[in-house]
Design a protein that fits this description.
Number of strands: 5
Shape: flat
Number of domains: 3
CATH topology of the largest domain: Arc Repressor Mutant, subunit A
Strand order of the largest sheet: 1-2-3
Number of helices: 17
Largest sheet: 3 strands, antiparallel
Order of helices and strands: HHHHEEEHHHHHHHHHHHHEEH
Structural class: mainly alpha
Length: about 350
């Protein structure tokens, strides 16, 4: 069958999306962020004023979701948010993707107008980037009380108190309001933030505040992005990956194994590295599962130091059955010597069963 020629009637009703956006930015953005950015591109030539609330209504998102998405794209340097004298959002300036590393001085398209009435209700006292939008503001006790009494916040407060193991003080409540209202974190991200810090034995909200601000500065808006960012700077994770002959970021399943070994089993890296070395010597496939077999066995045998491993190895050697020695038949009298025949699969099974 020959090639097809496609024609149209001359009418084009389309929005052009940069290939660079598709190649470099789509993969890390969530649903709300993608919808908001594509809608902004759509509205560049629409000659219509619109507000944050209009975008929220169109895609069935909250105004917080829209503001959070706008700040995410600003952090990616794909746009700049403009504010009026009262620090209300008044405009959006789209940047050239071909020079996205440095915001262009002149926009590639007209500034997208934002109606004044739509932004006043959603700024929540936030300041533009020039005034440090990630600074923790001062909240009154009335604001704390109002936040706690809102039905949508009661479950979040309950979950955080369950993690911390005690009722939150007014000062700690102000931190939760900071994450929610100022940093625009979703409840899921706040949940993950507290879990992340608790897992590192950090219950001090000064520490949690610093982690939250670092995530906000990186444009993190989802637990998945936070996990990827945190893993990136965990040297132990990449050291373990390297010991197992793996490169790149660990998958979610691989992180489950690593977290089990380091947190649930409580092994130090030298013991984990020992298991990894034995794994690499034994198999090229399913290395995480193989290492789990070794470390799970050591956990059951109360291994705490490498000396404990040596004792287990010595006991294994003592219990090991005598190796069968069989003559190898051959027609050549000069090659009629004996060879050791090892059942490597059986030895592997013994290793994993001890």
């Amino acid at each position: 069958m020959g090639m097809l020629k496609i024609t149209n009637d001359g009418y084009v009703d389309a929005t052009v999306i940069s290939n660079r956006f598709i190649d470099e930015y789509m993969k890390d953005a969530n649903d709300a962020q993608l919808k908001v950015y594509l809608y902004l591109i759509r509205m560049i030539h629409a000659n219509q004023a619109f507000g944050v609330s209009d975008i929220a209504d169109k895609f069935n998102h909250t105004e917080k979701d829209v503001m959070r998405s706008l700040k995410y794209w600003e952090k990616q340097k794909l746009l700049s948010l403009e504010y009026d004298e009262d620090k209300n959002l008044s405009g959006i300036r789209m940047h050239d993707l071909h020079d996205s590393d440095v915001p262009s001085v002149q926009p590639v398209a007209p500034v997208v107008s934002i109606t004044q009435t739509a932004t006043t209700a959603v700024t929540n006292g936030e300041t533009p980037e020039e005034s440090n939008p990630f600074a923790k503001p001062t909240f009154s006790l009335d604001q704390v009380k109002a936040f706690k009494e809102q039905e949508k916040n009661k479950q979040l407060v309950f979950i955080v108190e369950a993690y911390i193991g005690k009722p939150l003080t007014p000062s700690e409540m102000k931190s939760i309001i900071f994450y929610s209202d100022t940093l625009q974190f979703s409840d899921d991200l706040i949940d993950y933030l507290i879990q992340y810090c608790i897992d590192r034995d950090k219950k001090d909200f000064k520490y949690i505040d610093k982690v939250a601000i670092s995530w906000a500065e990186e444009g993190i808006t989802t637990p998945k992005q936070a996990q990827r960012f945190s893993t990136k700077y965990d040297k132990n994770v990449y050291a373990i990956m390297n010991e197992l002959g793996k490169s790149g970021s660990p998958t979610a399943k691989e992180m489950e194994f690593i977290n089990r070994w380091t947190k649930e089993y409580g092994f130090t890296t030298d013991i984990i590295f020992e298991a990894c070395e034995r794994t690499v010597m034994a198999t090229d496939k399913h290395r995480f599962e193989y290492a789990e077999g070794i470390l799970g066995s050591w956990k059951n045998q109360n291994v705490h130091h490498k000396a404990d491993i040596r004792k287990i190895d010595e006991n294994f050697q003592k219990r090991k059955p005598a190796i069968n020695v069989k003559p190898i038949p051959t027609g050549n009298k000069f090659n009629q010597f004996t060879q050791n025949t090892y059942d490597f699969e059986a030895l592997e099974r013994k290793l994993l069963s001890n």
